[in-house]
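Milestone 3.1: sequence recovery, worked example.
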């Protein structure tokens, strides 16, 4: 099955992220082994993008919240805990020995 977002085919998770953000994730997260010069250039580009798109952080937060809400059980492997029946709380009256 093929998935298209805005006319672009998304083949991997990274493709979905890049198409949702409009930028590659590496722009925001960096890449392993990047030099200080590459890091400075990447951060400058990110600042320019944020200056041109001030709503981008809110959009990213909204998308992340929607994904977490939709996939929370799978993301966090949530399993409800069951309390054992018949065990009451013992009260501690008196002085400690």
């Amino acid at each position: 099955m093929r998935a298209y977002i805005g006319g672009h085919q998304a083949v991997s998770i990274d493709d979905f992220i890049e198409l949702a953000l409009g930028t590659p994730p590496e722009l925001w997260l960096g890449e392993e082994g990047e030099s200080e010069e590459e890091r400075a250039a990447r951060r400058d580009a990110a600042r320019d993008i944020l200056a041109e798109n001030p709503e981008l952080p809110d959009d990213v937060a909204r998308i992340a919240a929607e994904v977490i809400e939709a996939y929370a059980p799978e993301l966090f492997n949530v399993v409800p805990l069951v309390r054992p029946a018949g065990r009451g709380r013992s009260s501690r009256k008196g002085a400690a020995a």
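Residues 14 and 25 are 8 Å apart (CA to CA). The mean pLDDT is 80.
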